[in-house]
Amino acid sequence: MSGSTTLPGDPPGGRRAALVWGVGVAVYFVAVIFRTSLGVAGLDAADRFGVNASALATFSILQLLVYAGMQIPVGLMVDRLGTKKVLTIGAVLFTLGQLGFALSPSYGMALASRALLGCGDAMTFISVLRLGTRWWPARRGPFVAQIAALFGMAGNLVSTLVISRALHGLGWTQTFAGSSAAGLIVLVLLLLFLKDHPDGHEPGPRHRGGGAFVRRQIARSWREPGTRLGMWVHFTTQFPAMVFLLLWGMPFLVEDQGLSRESAGALLTLVVLSNMVVGLAYGQVIARHHAARAPLAIGTVAATALLWAAVLAVPGHAPVWLLVTLCAVLGACGPASMIGFDFARPANPPERQGTASGIVNMGGFIASMTTLFAIGVLLDATGNNYRIAFASVFVPEALGLVQILRLKSRVVKRERERLVASRVEAVHVPA
CA-CA 20 to 30 A from 351: which of 135, 198, 329, 409? Predict the structure, then answer.
């Protein structure tokens, strides 16, 4: 699927596709701003609600727990209801969650608001992936997915640069309540302009079966080695940067490494900028060289583990150049996690794309949630020893790497079989 060839039945892409898909990406962009806003407000949240490290971690853990738990249901919803309906529900929920977080007078209400936000956030990315497959040719799939993720990281950049400064200038309530207006804006845009698919490319009839259909969708998606490999790639690659950006990066850099909040914010920004640059590179490489998927994923895991080991092994404060290198490498984690979808996409037919994407997307957020919790517990248990706490990142990395190596050859074999079968079928199709 290289060059300018478009497969039969492929959507044409073009300006109309860019407009509609861009609206979906804008919804995801705002969802990421809301998701990551706590990452720059962790110290403020601890002071506002008077909580320790474990309780602070519960904010992100609950949000990710809801997010991860919603992935398969959301995938099924996208397959059955279509993108516009699911994105609309998601935008309403994450906007209410962000507004509720702004106005929460207590820790319990703030937790409930983050859970609501996580539920709405869970409905965005899978919907945007599905929108991309409906509006763009299949050969552009890897690049389109990486561009969507790039805009998500731009949302993270807004959190790092704008939300953090607004907190100190405007205060908690005004900052979070004001940011919730962005949710209303994208909700209006998607209601006015978003369409599930281009004219002439309507999907087949949607199944209306009950529990039996749902179980079949999940079972058939899971039986595909490509889906399972995609989940483990996502599991292993996404969480190191997610944990760093979502909550623990700022406290680690300020409290353990002795940096100012401004310097720590600059390093968090570097993670985001690196992600955007690497995402463009990975998308182009994979679109042209399909076999590069596994080496890129494994190489990212190895580089991340090596840099974390180097930082944690340095007695006292790590040199600035080493922290800069760590943050630059962490920027590759997000693009590497997108490779998981590139394994699942060709392994599943169009009617299962949402379900398969949900399974893949669940992987990284389970790893992130588990590691966030482990770091918080270890910090409380060790008197804020960040070195011991952050050593927990090596456990899920090792587990995921073993699974990737175990499944990789099986997926390559299955894809070769499909390629041969498609060529044989093409030979027998009348001109």
Answer: 409
